[in-house]
Amino acid sequence: MDRETMTITNALEALRVLGARRLLLCLLVVGSSLACTPQPKLVGPTVPSGYFFAVRVPDIKTERLPASAELTVRVQDAQGQPVDGVPVQFQVEPAGERSASVSPQRAMTNSGTARAVFQAESAGRARVQVRVENTTQEAVITVTVEDDPD
Fold first, then answer.
1. Is residue 81 part of a domain?
2. How far is CA 116 from CA 18, 29, 48, in A?
3. Distance between CA atoms of 56 and 52, rounded to whole angstroms?
4. Three-state secondary-structure class, residue 21
5. What distance in Å separates the CA atoms of residue 47 and residue 114, rounded to the nearest whole number?
6. What CATH code is carried by the domain that includes residue 59?
7. Which of 59, 75, 63, 64 is closest to 118 using CA atoms?
8. Which DSSP helix (H) or strand (E) runs through 18?
9. Parent domain of 25
10. I need a labelling partner for 33 at 20 to 30 A (CA). Which of 16, 23, 47, 106 fits?
C-alpha cells in the first residue's frame, strides 16, 4: 500500500470511528434525557394487600381559568402487575378546597389505573392527597396562566 492510499484509508477509518462516536454520544444524550424524565414516585406497600402505587399529575399551563387536568394513579402488586378493583381516594388539601376540586373523589382501578379530573379556579399550587388502603401520597399541581399572544 502506498503512502497516499494509506493516508486516505486512515482518514476514512478516522471518520468512521468519529461517526460511530457521534452516534454513540447522541444515543447517550437522548437516552439520558429520557432516563432523567421525572417518573412518578412508587409508594407502598399498602396494608393489608401489599399494593404499590404511583400518582401522575401534570402541571397545568392555560390561557384562561378554570382549567383542568387528569390525575392518573397506577396500582400494582408486589410483582409489578396491575391490580383491578382497588378503590383510590382523591382529596384536595383543605386549604385549597375553595380554588380547586377533584372528581370523582373515589375511583376504582381498571387495568391497574384509576383516574380523576382536577379542576383549578385560580393559578398557584394545589396539593391533592391520594390514598390507597392505608397509604397516602401527596401530589402537587402547579397551575400557570399564560398571557394570550393575540
1. yes
2. 50, 35, 24
3. 14
4. helix
5. 19
6. 2.60.40.10
7. 59
8. helix 3-35
9. 1-37
10. 16
Residue 7 corresponds to which cell in the numbers above? 493516508
Residue 146 contacts residue 62 (beta carbons within 8 Å): yes
Which amino acid is present at 80? G
Q: Output Rg (C-alpha) for the chain, integer angstroms.
A: 25
Tell me the C-alpha to C-alpha distance, in Å, between residue 120 and each of 70, 103, 130, 145.
12, 12, 17, 11
Enter the C-alpha cell of residue 86. 382497588
Identify whether 63 is part of a domain. Answer: yes
Answer left, alpha or beta for residue 37, where phi above 0 means left and psi between -120 and 50 means alpha: beta
Lowest mean pLDDT among 10-14, 38-42, 98-102, 118-122: 10-14
Q: How far is it, in rounded angstroms, from Cα 76 to Cα 83?
A: 5
The dihedral through the CA atoms of 40, 45, 47, 51 has a sign that is positive
Q: Tell the residue number behind the cell numbers 452516534, with chain if given.
A: 23
C-alpha cell at 67: 382549567
CB 114 within 8 A of CB 80: no
Cell numbers at residue 52, please? 404499590
The model carries a pTM of: 0.70
Distance of CA 63 to the CA centre of its chain: 23
